[in-house]
Amino acid sequence: MVRKRPAWRTSGAGEHFSAEALERQRLHRQERKILPSAEHGIERVIRVYRSSPDTDLVTGMQWYRAAHAFCDELADEYSSLVPSAYHVAGIVAALSPQVSWTQNKRLSRELIEMGSTTSRLERVQTAREIMQGDDPYIKLFDPKRQNRKVRSFFMNIAFPDWPKIPEGHQLPDDIANIPPHVTLDRHAWSMLYWDRTITDVLVAPTKEYYEWGRCVFVAAADQLGGILPHELQAVTWVVWRNPNRRILDPNAPEMFPEF
Asked: Is the pLDDT of residue 129 over 90?
């Protein structure tokens, strides 16, 4: 019996796209990543904020304070293992990439209790060093690290009332004088682009992109008044994650873009 040669070994197998087609795909991805105008970004953030029902507004406005309270609780519960809530915030931020908030809290508690947890080795090592007393700001803002979302998440949790600083809490000048941090995760980027799948191509926003997004939230908060940029991000995060929330702006589409 003559066996047929496996299809994956035949000449040309796997060459699904021509060089021209691959180049078109590359250019399409590059075009999708082009930043929208700041005006469009601000309009979209404000539109989502104004669509928020009261329950989402309250949840978002208190989100980082609630996260800070969680850090306070862990610091009190494990006072012999971790120096302060400030350090717990660093642990939470270090373990935050690509996990839900529920998972993030579980991993943080597990690391403090057990000295390790199920996350990438470098994240666990960073969190462990913070638990052992390393300053989380110095650790997370090391120039060798490029995860801007982690840095912002730490600052927003550690100082939820920024620029107000807790009484008696001394900060280095390079922290006390920095502009507002805004946590830009995949939900924030999809909202700014008004495209639920933009993170398929915008995998790791550059420093310039991140600064653009931060400035959009700062400008939108200034226009709205009475809300801090990271509070605005949290409110819109709560709303945007629910694709069934209706947009109140009569000039906007009836529903959010679907996943």
From this structure: yes
> For 185-239, how does the pLDDT look when each residue is reduced to its tens digit (9 = 90+)?
999 999 999 998 998 888 888 999 999 999 999 999 999 999 999 999 999 999 9
| Cα(230)–Cα(100) distance, integer angstroms | 18
Identify the pLDDT of residue 211. Answer: 95
Task: Reduce the secondary structure of the chain to three states and give it as a string.
Answer: CCCCCCHHHCCCCCCCCCHHHHHHHHHHHHHHHCCCCHHHHHHHHHHHHHCCCHHHHHHHHCHHHHHHHHHHHHHHHCCCCCCCHHHHHHHHHHCCCCCCHHHHHHHHHHHHHHCCCCCCHHHHHHHHHHHCCCCHHHHHCCCCCCCHHHHHHHHHHHCCCCCCCCCCCCCCHHHHCCCCCCCCCHHHHHHHHCCCCHHHCCCCCCHHHHHHHHHHHHHHHHHHCCCCHHHHHHHHHHHHCCCCCECCCCCCCCECCCC
Place of tokens 């800070």: 68
pLDDT of residue 255: 44
Q: Phi and psi dihedrals of 100, rounded to 5?
A: -75, 165
> CA-CA distance, 203 to 98, in Å (whole number)?
12
The model carries a pTM of: 0.83
